[in-house]
Design brief:
The chain is mostly beta strands. Helices cover 15% and strands 44% of the residues.
């Protein structure tokens, strides 16, 4: 048997189940994702998304708050507002006007921010780069990578909660620090189904050495999930959006916002 025949036979015997996704370049994955929203170029821009939201927080017991939300965008600006209308939690504002990030105080009288707002204020890139809200956001980060000078890397199909998805790692041009941002897309449709923001912080040393053993690193995780996609004015957009913020060390604090999209208005 000739060498050429042997090489051909070896090629035929190689595993046939190597996923084609592993061979895709980051820009190809992003392009397929954008085309999944809409095949034409008018998929992003000025837009207002409205709906109902419900907040539940582990550290304040089993209760919950019902309210409304509005996500508006006029690229590169965006603004997400939660309105709960209570004394303990009036409203939440997470906004970028094209120049600066504005994170409001949920308790205006005391000048205190919620756990979610505190995390976003520490990591302004989440709002500044249009990451928050995914494709619901008319200023969506992956639609303007070149304009923002951001980059993504792609490492194939990886598991998130035992489900294989395309995993992209996002890196802003500046201001991201130690925050890790991963964007997850469905393997076949390339629809955006999750973004995970993760960060850890070492607690400050205490003056009493007997207390140091009681301290531990703090782990922060903000996770967005998107599901129940529907066609809205020719765009494939999720109608369910969940934001879950978790901080864990010796104890765990969790805030969960469940949002139901009711209206999408293109400007």
């Amino acid at each position: 048997m000739t060498r050429a025949c042997l090489l051909t036979l070896a090629a035929l015997l190689l595993p046939a189940n190597v996923p084609a996704a592993e061979k895709l370049k980051p820009e190809e994955v992003v392009q397929r994702h954008l085309e999944a929203v809409s095949p034409d170029a008018g998929r992003f821009g000025a837009r207002v998304v409205r709906g109902a939201c419900r907040l539940s927080a582990r550290q304040v017991g089993g209760g919950s708050l019902a309210g409304r939300f509005v996500l508006s965008a006029a690229p590169p600006a965006s603004r997400l507002v939660f309105d709960f209308g209570t004394n303990d939690y009036g409203s939440e504002v997470l906004a970028f006007d094209g120049q600066a990030v504005d994170v409001g105080f949920s308790k205006k009288q005391s000048g205190r921010r919620s756990a979610l707002a505190t995390f976003v204020a520490t990591n302004e890139v989440i709002v500044r780069d249009g990451l928050l809200g995914g494709v619901l956001n008319g200023s969506w980060a992956l639609a303007a990578l070149a304009e923002r000078g951001a980059k993504v890397s792609y490492d194939g199909l990886k598991k998130l909660d035992d489900v294989e998805l395309h995993r992209l790692k996002y890196r802003a041009k500046k201001g991201q620090g130690e925050l890790q941002v991963t964007v997850w897309l469905e393997p076949d449709t390339f629809r955006h189904v999750a973004t995970v923001y993760a960060q850890s912080r070492t607690q400050d040393m205490v003056s009493d050495p007997t207390q140091s053993s009681k301290q531990s690193d703090v782990y922060f995780r903000l996770e967005e999930r998107f599901s129940d996609f529907k066609s809205v004015s020719g765009l494939a957009l999720p109608s369910k959006w969940t934001i879950r913020y978790e901080a864990s060390s010796n104890t765990t604090v969790e805030w969960k916002y469940e949002l139901a999209v009711e209206e999408v208005e293109k400007k």
